[in-house]
Amino acid sequence: MVKELTIDRTKPVMVTGATGYVAGWLVKRLLEEGLTVHAPVRDPDNEEKRAHLDRIAAETSGKIRYFAADLLDEGSYGEAMAGCGTVFHTASPFKTSVNDPQKELVDPARLGTRNVLLEANRQESVKRVVLTSSCAAIYTDAIDTHRAPGGRLTEDVWNETASLDYQPYSYSKTVAEQEAWAIARAQTRWELVVVNPSLVIGPALQDRPTSESFELVKRIGDGTMRMGAPKVGLGCVDVRDLADAHMAAAFLPEAEGRHIVSGHETNLLEMAKTLEDRYGDRYPIPKNALPKWLMYIVGPMNGFSRKFVERNVNISWHADNTKAINAFGLSYRPMKTSMEEMFQQMIDAGMLEN
Q1: Which CATH superfamily is domain 13-346 in?
Q2: 10 Å Cβ neighbour count for 207?
Q3: According to the model, what pLDDT value does residue 143 have?
Q4: Structural contact between residues 137 and 177, judged by C-beta atoms closer than 8 angstroms
Q5: CB–CB of 320/260 below 8 Å?
């Protein structure tokens, strides 16, 4: 658990993307602390999308209010942000397959961040903005971690290898965070604190989660990787530990700068193996590594370019997570716990067949 927090409960807080996977656990933490959460969403009347949050609000001392807003609509966050002391900006598209990366990824990420932070400039009550960025704003491929100073990613490193044409999601997170820092440094009233998680895993609060993380884990269990899983180097973090990091970023007075929030240095095969003991007799969990030479052949048919294979398969991933551990007092759940609880939720939701 994080260090003791200094929470002002007299002011509401705003959370963009509140109905999403990551934000859901953050909203739960905020409601449990007795805060009033302002949730700007596209359709405040969509009771199905907000049902899990309404259930939590009914069981806690906090309150939640919904407002109509759109990431690309400048000024649409004014009503939701009015009177808020803290703003959490978590909303940003996470897609690995897109037709128009500029329209589907970069514009919502960069312009959405700009619209939220410029609204913070207009709202005198705002004292701190917490941005959910990503380790993707620090690196593109696992090989980049070896090229970083000391062979590990740190908060001083920026992604310089992603583009609209290659790994556009990573590019979108990079330009969005750079936009945030430019706006923050141009004013002096509010502080910006950034959280940079690796791949987020663990159970969702929604009954049928739709996050890209669940699509990845689904492929581990639905037979897609029956012949083997590629040893793609990456980091991962439990969604609940990430919520703790957001709380610390918001309510520790001394919090500052960027924070790599990643519990484990791993790869896809290691992630799959955490499920073998409990589920291997019922589901086609991959047991072997898919050879790199074979990935060069089958990868492009499954959305993995040869360039991606070259830079990620059989290459370990390394990042220095000590800043967030020390500054926030974070501790991380075992990867096996996160994966099993995530996988079981998918089974219970009928997302996997055995």
Answers
A1: NAD(P)-binding Rossmann-like Domain (3.40.50.720)
A2: 12
A3: 98
A4: yes
A5: yes
Q: Model confidence over 248-260: pLDDT tens digits? A: 999 999 999 999 9
Q: Which secondary-structure segment (H or E) carries 173?
A: helix 168-185
337 burial type by CB count under 10 A (0-12 exposed, 13-18 middle, 19+ buried): middle
CA 12 to each of CA 196, 209, 328, 345: distance values in angstroms, whole numbers, following the listed order: 24, 27, 22, 32
If residue 63 lies in a helix (H) or strand (E), which one and from where to where? strand 63-68
Reported as a pLDDT band with limits 50, 70 and 90, residue 210 is confident
DSSP-assigned letter for residue 288 = S
Is the model's pLDDT at 264 over the cut of 80? yes
DSSP string for residues in 314-335: T----B--HHHHHHH------H
Q: Kindly state the DSSP code that residue 11 receives in the 8-state scheme.
A: S
3-state class (DSSP) for residue 51: helix
Domain range list for the chain: 13-346
Residues in the chain: 354
Q: Is the pLDDT at 343 greater than 90, yes or no?
A: yes
Residue 132 DSSP one-character state? E
Helix axes 335-348, 212-221, angle to 10 degrees: 90
pLDDT beyond 80 at 95 = no
To which residue do tokens 């923050």 refer? Answer: 184
User: pLDDT band at 338, cuts 50/70/90?
Assistant: very high
Residue 136, exposed/middle/buried by CB under 10 A (0-12, 13-18, 19+)? buried
